Amino acid sequence: MKRLGVNIDHVATLRQARKTRYPNPMAAAALVEKAGADQITVHLREDRRHIQDDDLRELRKTVSTLLNLEMAAAPDIVNLACEIKPNVVTFVPERRQELTTEGGLHVVKVAEMLSPVVRRLKQSGIEVSLFIEPDLKQIEESVRLGADRVEFHTGRYCEEVDKRDKKGIQDELTHLKQASQFALEKGLSVAAGHGLNYDNIEDLLRQVPEIEEYNIGHSVVSRAIFVGLEQAVKEMKEILETVTANHDSGRPL
Ligand code: PXP
User: Fold this and answer.
1) CATH of the domain at 41
2) How many domains does the chain have?
3) What is the pLDDT of residue 244?
4) Which residue range forms the structural domain that includes residue 211?
5) Contact 196, 240 (CB under 8 A)
């Protein structure tokens, strides 16, 4: 069974746009969990453009599934993570001007800086995930760093789907499959996310059944505008369950 983590950052984006008290990310997290999600994911950005420190503190008290905190390895945020103790910390690269996380973390380049931080979080009892490109060298370095899991950046795959480039799509699916198999062999758990939506996730589920967890935000929160948050999450969860069940049964797809 695939796990679904729902990223609720954009509930806070809407709130921050007017600096109001609503919509409340904790209320959103409760609905997301009620709809069957397995994890609440939030990204505490250095510029605090959406999720705030207090949201994180509140979410820690209210989330009853798992709390996955995406963050850069900035010292103040690392301190906060050790205090709040989310179940999982996912290290992501961060550039202030970017619209969203535009690529995976180059763990080979930042290994020296990241190594003590990973150790510290693990000593605090927090699972560590690294958000990387589906690249074998990055996976090997993730193992060396002592990560528990990797999350593959699916942005390139999603871009190829948008371009309707069949070869490009297939190439990206192949990268994701090879990387997932390699990571599993190395003892890592495998997650994926970024840019996934109700249409482009199906091929990924069919062709890369090795991926155990998906973290999806923008498309789910967008769909919620039309059908409500619970329904939006249920629809995504149903795709995960249906496509996985069909794959497991060996039925032709
Ligand atoms: N996973 C990680 C590590 C991310 O940084 C993000 C974006 O914050 C997501 C998943 C969710 O991406 P999207 O909002 O495009 O679904």
Assistant:
1) 3.20.20.70
2) 1
3) 80
4) 3-244
5) no
In a domain, 60, yes or no: yes
Predicted local confidence at residue 167, as pLDDT: 97
pLDDT in tens, 108-143: 999 999 999 999 999 999 999 999 999 999 999 999
Is 189 among the domain residues?
yes
Dist. CA 185 → ligand 1 center (Å)? 25
Q: Is residue 250 part of a domain?
A: no
What's the rounded Cα separation, in Å, for the pair 221 and 228?
9
Active-site residue, 43 included? yes
Residue to substitute in 43, 51, 156 for testing ligand 1 pocket (most ligand atoms within 8 angstroms of CB): 43
Given a cut of 70, the residues of the chain with pLDDT beneath it are: 96-101, 248-253
User: How many residues are given for the chain?
Assistant: 253
Is residue 154 lining ligand 1, measured as CB closer than 6 Å? no
User: Which atom from ligand 1 is nearest to the alpha carbon of 220?
Assistant: 16
Ligand 1 nearest-atom number relative to CA 215: 10
d(Cα 204, Cα 130) in Å, to the nearest integer?
A: 20
Q: Is residue 186 part of a domain?
A: yes
List Cα–Cα distances, 80 to 121, 147, 198, 237, in angstroms: 11, 19, 34, 31
List 215's β-bridge partners, or say none: 5, 193
- Give catalytic status of residue 194 as yes or no: yes
Ligand 1 and 214: CB distance under 6 A:
no
**How many CB atoms are located within 10 Å of the residue 145 CB?**
18
